[in-house]
Here is the input.
Amino acid sequence: MILVPEEFARCTVEREGEPGAAWLAGLPGIVEELLGRWDHVPDGAVTHGGVGIVVPVRRRGDGAERASVLKVSFPHPGNVHEPDAFAVWAGRGAVHLYARDDRNFAMLLERARTSTLAEIGDADEVAEVAGQLSRRLAVPAPRDHPQLPCLGSQAGAWEDQLRKDATELAHTMSPSTVDAAVATVRELGREQPELLVHGDLHARNILRAEREPWLAVDPKGCVGDPAYDAGTLLTSRTPALLDAPDPGKAAHRILDIFGEAAELDRVRVQRWAQLRFVQAAFWGRRHGFRVARGGPGLDVIIQFADALAELLARRA
Here is the structure.
């Protein structure tokens, strides 16, 4: 039986409560059943992300078989369409999907390395690699895509939440900055391209690999505008931007490089990024962030989000 990492178990219970504890209790059995059904054996230490464990595996009795991983995630709506995205991409810029068990939120996937793009010190390279992958992953959505989440269908909820947050929460953003985010939702959010996009394309979700230099993992599998992922990348770079001599200049450079590599309209890229920073500023006030749930650290990030949202609104 596998050993579930203690940190993963603790975080799962803190986030999910009793349902999380019950799922964890049955997790080793789920893994054993899947390994038997797919005829694989463990081949290394169990690792984990935020919502799932990853077990390195190989096919039983065949040491020459291509290395794989078994990923099992906590059942959550946000994880439903991950295998759908992998199936459409078929290894194009992302890891291969070899087998799936949707009932258990489990997949047998191509094994990549454990090092991520986030470990690269060159911010330009991070933005370029992410942009190149964004371009490759932005393929026409399958005809039966109504099963996939459409970003455009969320636009109404985004606008309602922005207005609610602007009314209820104290913040330092000007009305014009919030209005710019609302305008982006109305003008870009409601009518979006019929393209499959990653939906959570930040540097930690891009792994070094053998088949290609970099491969994407952990997609949300959304249908919409590839420029949406520019906002994900930029907000995820907040810790590095905070340490930059000129955070605004550094942020614009990331968007410039990402947009060019992804072959996207630069203004569209910036508008999505501005919206995402306004949303992040409000989200942090209500919920905190994984890297800072409260205290001075959270205050620093929130104030930075306010300031960058202002800056991106002025130049959008």
Observations:
- The chain has a mean pLDDT of 94.
- DSSP finds eleven helices and eleven strands in the chain.
